[in-house]
């Protein structure tokens, strides 16, 4: 019996040729799949920085204001607020002043007290608004230390003369919202409705002063 024929092989065909034909293709061929992962040498590109080129009208700006000797501090702040068209909030101050007029609410009939001599500024705060601002919305409070260590303070009335360089730390703003408190229930409901409609917080302004 012919064994090659019985195994389904044609005559003259060797076993190696049969194995090559049954393999289905040449070994070592590459597939079309893409390799997983990040390509070698690639990195995340840095994002460009965000640069704000314009401030919002409601943004606060910080200032360091220096007042020269023998200059009225109150008048200087008022002129600065009017010319810049911005409200000025005085946060602190340092330096010396002379001949200060202050109003002390605890004194009888809120009398004005005149302090003669030089005094060191311990605290200076208040707000000065340019026109159009409601009357009484501006004012400065001051606390002073005398030569004997006494401390006195009150609301500044009239000029406040600097007897040396005075440095003020201040913040300015363009818009001021004037509201009367306490709010009535109807006003509060209307303010909340307007806030929901416009997408702003509760406390919709009754009157808004824009210093621009």
What does this structure look like?
The chain has 212 residues and is α+β, with helices and mostly antiparallel strands. The chain is 18% helix and 33% strand. The protein has 4 helices and 10 strands, in the order ααβαββββββββαβ. The chain has helices spanning 3-6, 15-22, 73-84, 185-198; strands at 61-67, 87-94, 96-103, 112-128, 139-145, 151-156, 161-162, 166-173, 175-178, 207-210. The strands form 2 sheets. Strands 1, 2, 3, 4, 5, 6, 7 and 8 form an 8-stranded antiparallel sheet that branches. β3 and β4 form a beta hairpin. It is elongated, with a radius of gyration of 41 Å. The relative contact order is 0.18. The model is unreliable at 1-10, 18-24 and 199-206 (pLDDT under 50). Residues 1-54 are annotated as: Disordered. GO terms for molecular function: minor groove of adenine-thymine-rich DNA binding. Pfam families: PCC. Keywords: DNA-binding, Nucleus, Transcription, Transcription regulation.
The helix-strand sequence is HHEHEEEEEEEEHE
Distance between the termini: 115 Å
Instruction: List low-pLDDT spans.
Output: 1-10, 18-24, 199-206
Helix content: 10-25%
Strand content: 25-35%
Inertia-based shape:
elongated
Query: What gyration radius follows from the Cα positions, in whole Å?
Result: 41 Å
Tell me about the biggest sheet?
8 strands, antiparallel
List how many beta strands DSSP finds. Answer: 10
Number of helices: 4
Helix-strand category: alpha+beta
Average pLDDT taken over every residue: 77
Pfam family, one: PCC
Keywords: DNA-binding, Nucleus, Transcription, Transcription regulation
GO molecular function: minor groove of adenine-thymine-rich DNA binding
Main location: nucleus
């Amino acid at each position: 019996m012919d064994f090659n024929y019985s195994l389904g092989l044609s005559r003259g065909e060797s076993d190696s040729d049969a194995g090559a034909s049954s393999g289905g293709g040449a070994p070592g061929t590459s597939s079309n799949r893409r390799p997983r992962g990040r390509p070698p040498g690639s990195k995340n590109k840095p994002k460009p920085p965000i640069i704000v080129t314009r401030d919002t009208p409601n943004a606060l700006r910080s200032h360091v204001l220096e007042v020269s000797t023998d200059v009225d501090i109150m008048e200087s702040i008022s002129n600065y607020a009017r010319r810049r068209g911005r409200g000025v909030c005085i946060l602190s101050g340092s330096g010396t002043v002379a001949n200060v007029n202050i109003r002390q609410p605890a004194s009888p009939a809120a009398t004005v007290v005149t302090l003669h001599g030089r005094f060191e500024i311990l605290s200076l705060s208040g707000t000065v608004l340019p026109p159009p601002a409601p009357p009484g919305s501006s004012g400065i409070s001051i606390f002073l230390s005398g030569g004997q260590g006494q401390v006195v303070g009150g609301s500044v009335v009239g000029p406040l003369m600097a007897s040396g360089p005075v440095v003020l730390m201040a913040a300015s703003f363009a818009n001021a919202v004037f509201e009367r408190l306490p709010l009535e229930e109807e006003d509060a409901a209307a303010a909340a409705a307007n806030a929901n409609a416009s997408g702003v917080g509760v406390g919709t302004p009754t009157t808004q002063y824009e210093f621009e």
